């Protein structure tokens, strides 16, 4: 497991692109690893034959852990060692029961699974998310699948071999029928999936006795579908739950009139677009936030035990919504950038996040985070703090609303203005409501006086 960033201590194998015995070229992708929320391809360090895989898909290991063994002295096309062959002829004759489980051909053994005695922990009932997903999709009882992984662990290829052998299809009716009958006796509203039975003549229910089943509604009550969480979803769950259990969350909300921001954006948008920079409302809010964080350093801090750590640089996290979850790439030293520079960085990070091209260090080291659910039409929220930071600012939708405005002579009138809510969740361990309110009010004022 390579060191993929200064803050990365471990990684999880998401997928192996090569199998034991495969020939690989230098820099060809061997596996995909996820570190926190970024997927990274692991290249082969040299050309050679992949001798064996030591870490299963779904396993999390520390940086420096050996993932596989590569024979760089092998040559393309030459026969690889006998223990890595997958043809049936190269394997000892299997007993009938074993053959029924493994199907045609046996797979290469993992380290310690070549028949020799081993002290490996029994991992036969440990299943990776990939294995569980395939089993659920095909209705397979994993207890029936013989594992060939380390410690008897059931691997993806074991489940696929079980399916190809036909054992899964044969087991389904035999195992499913008793369960379905039991359901009938427990509830008359539950029935087996399948075609509707033909209508019976009156009185036929008596002939069927206890087996009679009342017609079920079109959509059966209690129907459900289960899927294992993706690794990204698991990480998000861990971080968010941990933050709620760690920080003393409070939320302060201010309403801002973005009339000047809208006018400035209208004036600058086309010119910046010609230079390849998308100018969004988020860029203006980021610029105002960075400026005020330097005037309110407690908001650009973190809590470490009984100490508050103040950060000289504003490393601004920008939450980006992906199809599979949320990721927060970081603009390092954001205080050095102009409005256009921030807009360019935000656009670049969002594009690389959605195309899967972020590096591990791109998502570490943030000191303050901005999230932007307003782009989806949301108008109010209470975000969860991105630990170990002490605050997160939420930009809501910019909506035209009637508001009372006062002119220079003190006369009030009702006007339609582009308004938004800025919602900031903050950690009461590090600061109090007065400081949070002052910061939010200063960000609001900077936006309302933009260009003035």
What is the CATH architecture annotation of the domain at 231-448? 2-Layer Sandwich
Distance between the termini: 53 Å
Q: What structural category arises from helix and sheet content?
A: alpha+beta
Number of helices: 10
What is the CATH homologous superfamily assignment of the domain at 231-448? Answer: Chloramphenicol acetyltransferase-like domain
Please give the radius of gyration in angstroms: 30 Å
User: Major sheet, described briefly?
Assistant: 7 strands, mixed
Number of strands: 18
Explain briefly what this protein structure is:
This protein has 452 residues and is of the alpha+beta class. 29% of the residues lie in helices and 21% in strands.
How would you characterize this protein structure?
By secondary structure, this protein is of the alpha+beta class. Among the domains are: 10-82, RNA polymerase II/Efflux pump adaptor protein, barrel-sandwich hybrid domain (OB fold (Dihydrolipoamide Acetyltransferase, E2P), Beta Barrel), CATH 2.40.50.100; 231-448, Chloramphenicol Acetyltransferase, CATH 3.30.559.10. It has helices at residues 96-102, 129-138, 156-164, 167-186, 204-208, 231-246, 259-274, 281-295, 339-354, 433-448; strands at 10-16, 23-24, 29-35, 38-43, 48-53, 60-62, 68-71, 249-257, 301-304, 307-310, 316-318, 320-322, 325-327, 330-331, 368-371, 391-395, 399-406, 412-427. Helix 8 (281-295) crosses helix 9 and helix 8 crosses helix 10 (433-448). The longest helix has 20 residues, at 167-186.
